[in-house]
Write a structure and sequence with these properties.
Largest sheet: 3 strands, antiparallel
Number of strands: 9
Order of helices and strands: EEEHHHHEEEEHHHHHHEEHHHHHH
Distance between the termini: 60 Å
Helix content: 40-55%
Number of helices: 16
Shape: globular
Structural class: mainly alpha
Radius of gyration: 24 Å
Length: about 425
């Protein structure tokens, strides 16, 4: 590393360069723009070319984790990453656990720090296997005592004769990883009251807008939130929706609680089919044929596939709406609706966009039970894109008592009283 190099620039390929995958990251030292070779090769060989992790978001997460690690080493006057030790990794952990994220303005979560440290440890294992590192970050695994899982924590206990036990191996570096938060700290599904307050702040759906004043009441943001809330889609999945997916649907207005099906590309580029209630399809189609159409016609813009677009009044009006903007829509409206974290001086939003997905799972569980479905987990797992139903059960089992009994009805909104 050259003496003046202090920062690491993460380059993400958005070109059609031969031999470089779209979305593939590379690390460069600034200001010399010298490539950081071993970390870049690690990402290329272990994540891009291996095919085991096709998500470009994961590639970027690895790149930014290694960039933060390299910059940390520079800050503590370690010029060569090969000179780093286990003590340095521990200091890195402690520094991040006490820092505030420049993006969220909140302290880094233990899960974020754990993920970054895991990427760093895997990088050193890679370097060690190639004879490039022989320090204390990589050490021989030590066998920990056998871990027993109680019956009430085992989602598949009913098919086993007793509690499950297993032995795990770990290294000194892995033992430094911060513990993951308990689920009740990580999941925050919306209550009925919180959802209604959020909807009031977001404004009306297309069908609720008075034709005389609709130019002052836009429904895009409400539709974005409702689409995630009532389908369980992730933010990137909502951002990738197209108008063509809805143009080909023919929902029956007399059966608002029935469902239409569309195919989406989810996490890991996996295709899955999801259900969307008729009433929501009708609202989206109204948005396409009115608010969205008027935007393109008034600006003389050429229409394109993206469903949700930037509104009038912005320089990029008509462009596809980014997932980051959608997250900001959720955050801004939660704060405006008073859904903030208690005691937070910055009035940080109590709920994230991903909490809409959690809310779908919890609400759907009760809805399906009220409709007579004794095993709602299979439907929820399929809708969320979980390959294993155990994942769904383990994640949400402790949250299904969030709501009380609902009155039976066909329309899901009637069941939950919204």
């Amino acid at each position: 590393m050259e003496a003046q190099d202090q920062k690491v620039f993460v380059f993400v390929n958005r070109t059609s360069i031969e031999g470089v995958a779209p979305g593939q990251p590379a690390l460069f030292w600034m200001p010399s723009m010298r490539v950081s070779e071993t970390p870049t090769l690690f990402i290329d060989e272990q994540y891009v070319r291996s095919g085991g992790t096709p998500s470009t978001n994961t590639w970027k997460a690895v790149a930014y984790a290694l960039a933060s690690w390299l910059e940390f080493l520079v800050a503590v006057e370690i010029v060569d990453w090969r000179d780093a030790s286990l003590d340095d990794l521990e200091s890195y952990r402690d520094a991040f656990l006490g820092s505030v994220s420049p993006r969220t303005h909140q302290c880094f979560s233990s899960s974020t720090v754990r993920q970054r440290m895991t990427f760093v440890i895997n990088f050193y294992r890679y370097a060690s296997a190639r004879g490039l590192y022989c320090g204390t970050i990589v050490s021989d695994p030590e066998v920990r005592e056998r871990t027993r899982i109680s019956l009430d924590r085992d989602a598949l206990a009913h098919i086993r004769s007793g509690s499950r036990t297993y032995a795990t191996k770990t290294s000194s570096a892995v033992r430094l990883l911060p513990r993951e938060r308990q689920r009740n700290e990580r999941l925050r599904p919306l209550t009925r009251e919180a959802y209604l307050r959020l909807c009031e702040q977001l404004g009306p759906l297309p069908s609720e807008i008075d034709s005389r004043t609709k130019q002052y009441r836009r429904s895009r943001d409400r539709l974005i939130i409702d689409t995630a809330f009532w389908t369980g889609m992730r933010v990137e999945e909502v951002a990738s929706l197209t108008r063509y997916q809805f143009d080909t649907l023919f929902p029956n207005p007399k059966a608002p609680g029935a469902y239409q099906k569309i195919s989406i590309t989810g996490k890991g580029r996996k295709q899955r089919t999801i259900r969307i209630p008729n009433w929501l399809v009708l609202e989206v189609q109204a948005y396409i044929n009115d608010e969205r159409r008027v935007l393109f016609e008034s600006k003389g813009l050429r229409d394109h596939a993206s469903l949700f677009v930037v509104e009038r009044g912005h320089r990029s009006a008509g462009n596809a709406l980014s997932k980051r903007t959608m997250q900001e829509v959720m955050q801004k409206n939660c704060v405006a609706a008073g859904l903030t974290k208690a005691g937070d001086l910055r009035s940080a939003a109590r709920h994230s966009f991903h909490d809409l997905r959690h809310s779908y799972a919890v609400w759907t569980y009760w809805v399906e039970r009220e409709l007579g479905n004794a095993e709602p987990w299979k439907l929820i797992a399929s809708q969320l894109g979980h390959t294993s139903m155990t994942t769904t059960i383990d994640t949400y089992l402790h949250y299904v008592e969030l709501f009380g009994e609902f009155e039976k009805n066909v329309d899901v909104r009637g069941l939950v009283g919204v």
